[in-house]
Known about the structure:
Blueprint: E1 3-5, H1 6-18, H2 23-29, E2 43-45, H3 46-59, H4 65-72, H5 80-86, H6 91-100, E3 109-116, E4 119-126, H7 135-152, E5 165-167, H8 179-183, E6 187-188, E7 194-199, H9 200-203, H10 212-224, H11 234-245, H12 253-260, H13 264-273, H14 278-296, H15 301-307, H16 313-324, H17 328-335, E8 344-345
Parallel strand pairs: 5-6
Antiparallel strand pairs: 1-2, 3-4, 4-7, 5-7, 6-8
Helix pairs in contact: 1-2, 1-4, 4-7, 5-6, 5-10, 11-12, 12-13
Amino acid sequence: MSFLPAATARALLAGFRAVGLDADALREAAGIAPPALEPVDALLPAEAFGRLWEEAWRRAPREELPAEVGLAVPFGAFGALDYLAASSPTVEAAFHALAAHFRHVAAGFALEVARRPEGGTVRLVPAHPSSGRDRMAEVSDEFTLAVLVGRFRPRPLVPPFRAAQVRLTRPAPGRPTRHASLFGAPVVFGCAVAALEVPAEAWGARLETADPVLQETLRQLAERIGLGEAGSDLELAVRARLRTLLPDGRGEAAAVARSLGFSGRTLHRRLSAIGRTFREVADAFREAEAERLLASGSVPLGEVALRLGFADQTAWNRAFRRWKGTSPRRWMASRDGAGGGPRAAGPRRSTARPPRRRP
């Protein structure tokens, strides 16, 4: 049986209450007793979260419910984590603070935060990607990205916070939805990894609530009670090195291992200890990075292949077909509504430049 932090259940119930649902009735229907939510480090069976969402959908059968609830979660519902983010000097620093202590409110995935010339990217990286569809993982992705957007959008930033693009892992709905208007950004469905793209002006915006003394106090408290990252961020480190090494054609395991300061054999052993192989991590990174680069509309197809470390177009096309079942060019066309693949909610945007990742 898998477990998830009760802190997330408390925030989820607060979000349900904020959108007008009877949170106490939902909790009772899901079989969650109030004492189970009280300890700061309590865990709940993952099935309890599934029951909460199923009961919520029964009462409010809306496609966009996870996004609505995530955006409505009140500030402070995640406790110290909210204040760690709010006391950061900039939006970028706030995302890094969230990533460093994310395991307090999440299990099974981590935040990957990366700066880009055009802004920043926040990805939800699963620890053990599913080979098939996982509906609750899709719900969790949508809810989490909405929470992240909701943490910054109400704040008095100059310029105001906005996402340039939101990428969701759930399939494209069969009818129009309000996802784009809720997130305030184009939404792409059916992605390998859920993510936020944030434009440079919002990524570097300074927070008026910045408080270095408070943040240092909260950091020390988090470390004392064990809310920080332990040694499970190996996959994130490998992905970060791949982003640098692949464009130079040095994405093999030995080169990545050297950049991390240990041997290839040690890298394989450590990845095996968390149930992953180097090939799985590299393949998942390449697929997600391909989506990001193609969705930006600013990188030629040939350049995408080079950035992902493919020796030629044939190898690049073959890998993309394995991921998406179609060619890169057709995937881009379908994404803009010309075919049956992932498509964006809301108005079609130009591919002349990225709108600037969303979570």
